[in-house]
Protein 1
Amino acid sequence: MGPHIMAPRECTNRHRPAQVIKTAIYTAVTICILRSTSGGGSDGEGTDLGIRDITRPYKSCLLVAQGGANTLPVIRALHGAGIAVLERPPSDAILSLALTREFDFVAWHFALDDARIEPVLGRLTLGAIPCVALLELATPSLTSLCLDAGADACLQLDADAMLVVAQVHAVLRRHAQPGEPELGDCGVLQVGDLVVDVDRCEVERGGVFIPLTASEFRIVEHMARNAGRVLRPHEILNAVSREYEYLPREAQEVFKVYVRRIRRKLEVSEDDPQYLVNVRGFGYRLEGGHTDARPRRVSVAAG
């Protein structure tokens, strides 16, 4: 039997049964999205540190819309930015779910003559919940009404994907709590010819896509942020797994499994590693192949 999967901000007895079910569904959606964006399937090889806390480094959205609303462009834009989405029709129960802070932000669709605009946005504002109003047609009057009622941003359903992502990032940045990663922590890390796209959860080597699982990606991302530095196995594993603290001795064996798996995909030759390099007696460091370049951050245009 695999490890027990908990939803973001672990479920407790205070949740109503309906909320627990919705949160469990959201978790399954999140796992599917992250596996598809990381290019990997199941973490079936060896120990899986990623599945225990798979939602932690990623953002989540509760999207509320009537069944006839064409929300697909918005959902695709959010998925492309590595944001997990759970879509549900509007109801009092869903508004209560939105107020539980199970999600990083709420995207709520409103029709032109929707009487719920002020009550819903007022409740979300009082609860300090980041909210994006989704509109079929973002007319000046409807947009003004939503913003005055408390929406952090307004988007037309067929808005360009770059605009959707930029608006969402701006909203999350304004609501970020102390210690949370800011937008500047996202984007692209480059180490030699190795490119780690943090937003899309993808890794490329010399322009070639490398299909990593979620946990493998997080290890590579952490090492890319510390490229050139020698990191001990327990430091790496503890940095990417919040629910379990590895002791140095057990981390040695667990990390060796990940090293084999990552090298099998990342290295041109496993016998002559140029990226994930072992410094005997100390730990591992990430290098940029034969270029041996130090990392640099690539700015990503907001659109």
Note: The domain at 17-175 is CATH 3.40.50.2300 (Rossmann fold).
Protein 2
Amino acid sequence: MSASDEAVRATNDDAASCKRSAVQIGYWTDPYIQFVTKASERKPPEISRGYYARVKSVQGLVRQFLEVCRTIMVTVVKNRR
């Protein structure tokens, strides 16, 4: 394995560890994070808040997208009658 592969894996492991720390503090729930990361020390609050902001942003975008899809589907069904 090359040095760049090692660096990528280390970055991935650190990110997963930060996410697990944020979940353990209670920023959001993730029932699967415990299966893909090892327990680690608590990370600084700034890191947890950053992950929280990203998670909530993505959740909001997904909800908006699903609402648009639902609206389109309702419109299609009404127009087929």
Note: The CA atoms of residues 11 and 40 lie 15 Å apart.
Protein 3
Amino acid sequence: MNNNQKLIRDGIASVFDGKPFLLTVSEVASILGISRASVYRLSDTGRLHAMRPVLSGNRGAVRIVRDSVERLLHQWVSDKS
């Protein structure tokens, strides 16, 4: 791993410091710099892992697994280099 790759990896990791395991669609959109609709599209195509945690018997809101966002960022960065 060269210095640029290490800087990128560390930079991506710092984006997620203190973030919970499950992120809202709005949080993911902000992190990735894309629209909420694009987050849903990435989820629908399987590029982001989404779930609907149900805690109170109601249909839960969509949450995106943090690790899938991190993986996608790494993929995007490696595709551009």
Note: The chain has a mean pLDDT of 87.
Protein 4
Amino acid sequence: MPSFSDIANRTGSLFGAIALLGALSAGAARAEDFERTVPVEPGGTLRIELSTGSIDVETHDLSEVEIDARTSGWARRAMRFELEVDDDEVRLIGSRSSWLPGLGPGRVEVTARIPELFSVDLHTSGGHIDVQEVTGQVEAHTSGGDIELNQIVGGIEVETSGGSIKAGEIRGDLAAKTSGGSIHVSEVNGNVEVETSGGPIRVRDVDGNVEAQTSGGAISVRFTGAPAGDLETSGGSIEVQFPPSEGVDLEAETSGGRVAIDKEFTISGSVEPSEVEAELNGGGAELSLETSGGNIRVRAR
């Protein structure tokens, strides 16, 4: 049987370990967040590379880039940030410098404020990306989160491996791809190219060519003017809307449903219940619609 002194020594060691862990947790909670401000000229580029964490970008009226990186949990001590400035480029790198088990879940949130006329190139391995009111090129890639874009003037290329994509009020070409979510796009003046492996696609009020492909959902596209593009799904219906005064060369085929065209359009060509190859309103640009598992509807808006 252990003696009283042995028990006291072991108890003291246990309390010491608990006290040490508490000190580490308290130190982590008090660790300073990363805040930097860099003077810049409009027209530059902000690049952010994170090993984990979310990214939010917004604009302001100042000629400077403001970085505000907030961390919690293990990330208080395990994340390391570096800011580099090279001519017209500002680059923020956030990476794990170590693992500290026992400190609970961690969170990394980066907010950047940039001049309105500025481009962004954003990469994170685990978090959402949100970009608002930017005039410039936008590139965004995440391995584990949603992407949302609003009021962008410029070309856009975004991709996520595990989330949905939303974009609205876009003036420029848009390319968006996700491996596991829906895609919703609205008010686009430019060409749209979207692809998802696991969700529906909805494009509203687009003035441009639309290329859309999904392996697991419906596709719905509403054109403001003449329609053009290629829409394909392996597991859902397709619906297209455009003004009844516009013409199009239509090819529509379904393996698991019917093709229906509103009576507002004049039709010239081959029309079968599940396949149509015809000119609508005298023809125009090419529009191809194909589904393996649903109906196709061409509607007048």
Note: Residues 151 and 209 are 20 Å apart (CA to CA).
